[in-house]
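Notes to self after the Tuesday call (sharing in case useful).
The group wants a holo model before anyone commits to mutagenesis around the pocket. I volunteered. Ligand is zinc ion. Logging inputs and output together so the record is complete.
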Amino acid sequence: MNHFGHMVVGGIVGLVAMLILKEFSLPLVAICLLGSILPDIDLKQSKASQIVQPIAVLGVAFLLYPFFSTKFGALAAVVVSLAISAAVIFLVLFPLRLKHRGITHSWKAAAVFSIIGGLLLGINGGIIALLSYASHLVVDRI
Ligand SMILES: [Zn+2]
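Result:
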């Protein structure tokens, strides 16, 4: 199934869960839609890869910035942090492609995503993250 189909199925599952949990918010919708396509991050051209790669670059740059801000001025530290982060993400990490439908298509990965969702958005975020990720795993087996 393509990313749109996964998002439709994950969105329906997430919407039903939100109605049962009686909590609806844009962050919950966002984590629901992300979870429904995230397992396909092991495909280079997938929507999940296209969404996660820029976020990963910004996240690593955010972590590097405090180190470089002590060495350079603020603007130079931002540029150096982004350049090193982009190099690490695009030249080292993402070229190490995972086997399609390997670890990212496992219940362990679903549990990790659920924990992240729970830490970011509370227990309902964890539940929605788990259900949307699980919807992808189930649909891929049909
Ligand atoms: Zn998949």
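Two things stood out.
Residues 3-141 form one domain.
The radius of gyration is 17 Å.
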